[in-house]
């Protein structure tokens, strides 16, 4: 669920401005899930743009306060949400941890890096949701440490029904700054997407899991 329409459009506008949205139907991207896709939203790029990362930091920090009051800890899903998670934690003056996809195979073999105590209230920051598997994998690791996961805020979601049901099944509340529908709305207003690509995106969105498989 997007926070509100203005934020969704503004976030989409900023992502388009910094060329975080890549369209390569001829040379499809492979996603974390293994799905092939003509589109890739690279939120990591925003860290290189102070005005954009300040916007995301401010909106996310405000939402954490509005939705969850004062959590004990902010957690970022590695690696995409480490940077943005730290920015949010910094804005709120809160501790920060990050969650790896799996425990390290050497060193201290941690999956969660940073200091966490059981019983703490944690808000998770994620950069992007496709199927939601990576994010929910991080939630699982946090819950195994006996913390209370209050909810998650992400920059962007494709809004796939599989993600919605995955979050529902795990009983995790998700809010996002923007989503695919607002991105496409914003992109068409600014003629960002050429006509042939618009057709490809329409076809892809009807069955993204099977596209080019
Ligand atoms: O919803 P999902 O289907 O799980 O896909 C989304 C995940 O994919 C990306 O991470 P990636 O695995 O590319 O790693 P990175 O964060 O280290 O770049 C992104 O940062 C999300 O965590
Ligand atoms: O599903 C993914 O791996 C994925 C998709 C996308 O658009 N951007 C991203 O960073 N990851």
From TrEMBL:
Entry GO MF terms: magnesium ion binding; orotate phosphoribosyltransferase activity
Reported cofactor(s): Mg(2+)
Residues that bind orotate: 130
Residues spanning the signal sequence: none
Entry's transmembrane regions: 73-99
InterPro entries, per database record: OPRT, Or_phspho_trans_dom, PRTase-like, PRTase_dom
Domain Phosphoribosyltransferase: 56-156
One of the Pfam families matching this protein, by short name: Pribosyltran
Annotated function: Catalyzes the transfer of a ribosyl phosphate group from 5-phosphoribose 1-diphosphate to orotate, leading to the formation of orotidine monophosphate (OMP).
Keyword rRNA-binding: no
GO process annotations (BP): 'de novo' UMP biosynthetic process; pyrimidine nucleobase biosynthetic process
UniProt protein name: Orotate phosphoribosyltransferase
Protein family membership: Belongs to the purine/pyrimidine phosphoribosyltransferase family. PyrE subfamily.
Binding sites annotated in the UniProt record for 5-phospho-alpha-D-ribose 1-diphosphate: 100, 104, 106, 126-134
Pathway(s) the chain acts in: Pyrimidine metabolism; UMP biosynthesis via de novo pathway; UMP from orotate: step 1/2
Keywords of the record: Glycosyltransferase, Magnesium, Membrane, Pyrimidine biosynthesis, Transferase, Transmembrane, Transmembrane helix
PANTHER family: OROTATE PHOSPHORIBOSYLTRANSFERASE (PTHR19278), URIDINE 5'-MONOPHOSPHATE SYNTHASE (PTHR19278:SF9)
Subunit structure: Homodimer.
Reactions mediated catalytically: orotidine 5'-phosphate + diphosphate = orotate + 5-phospho-alpha-D-ribose 1-diphosphate
Record-listed E.C. numbers: 2.4.2.10
Organism of provenance: Flagellimonas pacifica
